[in-house]
Amino acid sequence: MSKKTNVPSVGNRALIARLTRTASGGLVSVAEAAEGLGFPRRTAALKLASLARRGWLLRVRRGLYFIVPLENEPGRPVTLDDPWLLAREVFSPCYIGGWSAAEYWGLTEQLFRSTLVITAAHTRATSVNLLGQEYRLLRVPRARVEGATLVWRGAERVPVSSRERTIIDCLRHPALCGGIRHFVHILREYKASSEYDPETLLAVARQAGNGAVWKRFGYIVEALWPDEAKFVDEARAHLGAGNVKLDPTVRRRGTLLSRWRLWVNLPLE
């Protein structure tokens, strides 16, 4: 019996070439394959499954495949060059946010192994590994993933939170950036950058923030930049009822600062 090689037959090679032209970042769905190959959807699904069994494609999830590069050595793990493209295909509607967005905008030099995805897709998992990539997920209502900024990743565009939306998201969920202390670094980097836009930051906070956002924001800005009265005054006007932790990722409750209705459970520095 002859050994299987990593070279598809002439017919399959032609199919793979056509699929490659249809694919986005090496990823192709059944619907895209049907359109690109001119097959009925069921025929395209069967053909993709057949190519996957032969090792020319990798099934990422139901209805989505990754085209294995022909130069990939047999037996070696197949990984995707850009995890953002896979996130767009698997977790849509979504956007790249949190620490991943902060890295993209140059707001942090800290490196994270996983890609942070804000998604409205139906998923119970908070951590997923696909094609050698680790994803951390936060599920939100669909309305909260609308209006993301589209950025180019090679020849493809992927939604990502803007600088301001990243900051507000991290105030709402400090775990998205690794906690409040790292958030303080991100906020300082943003204020020091040429892209600093206080009016846009306030506008996004009004649109996407909640009481917890304003409590954390007001306290942090008052501590770091006491002269920024417009931020403090705006935060005071939106506090809402109840007390929240400065950093929910820290277990201890801390000391209640009634001015901001905030349990200060760690120092900012």
Provide a descriptive summary of the structure in words.
- This protein is α+β, with helices and mostly antiparallel strands and 269 residues long.
- The chain folds into 3 domains: 10-67, Arc Repressor Mutant, subunit A; 79-205, no CATH class; 210-269, no CATH class.
- 39% of the residues lie in helices and 18% in strands.
- The protein has a 4-stranded mixed beta sheet. The protein has a 3-stranded antiparallel beta sheet with strand order 1-3-2, sandwiched between helices. It has a 3-stranded mixed beta sheet with strand order 10-12-11, with helices on one face.
- A hairpin with a 4-residue loop joins strand 11 (255-257) and strand 12.
- Helix 1 (10-22) crosses helix 2 (30-37).
- The longest helix has 14 residues, at 211-224.
- The radius of gyration is 23 Å and the shape is elongated.
- It starts with 9 loop residues before the first helix and ends in a 5-residue tail after the last strand.
**Helix fraction by DSSP (H/I, runs of at least 4):** 25-40%
Cα(first) to Cα(last) distance is 67 Å
Q: In sequence order, what are the helices and strands, one letter per element?
A: HEHHEEHEHEEEEEHHHHHEEE
Q: Which residue ranges are poorly predicted, with pLDDT under 50 across at least 5 consecutive positions?
A: 1-5
Summarize the structure.
The chain is α+β, with helices and mostly antiparallel strands and 269 residues long. The protein has helices at residues 10-22, 30-37, 41-53, 83-91, 98-104, 163-172, 180-192, 198-208, 211-224, 229-236; strands at 27-29, 57-61, 64-67, 94-96, 115-119, 127-130, 133-139, 149-153, 156-160, 244-245, 255-257, 262-264. The chain folds into three domains: 10-67, Arc Repressor Mutant, subunit A, CATH 1.10.10; 79-205, no CATH class; 210-269, no CATH class.
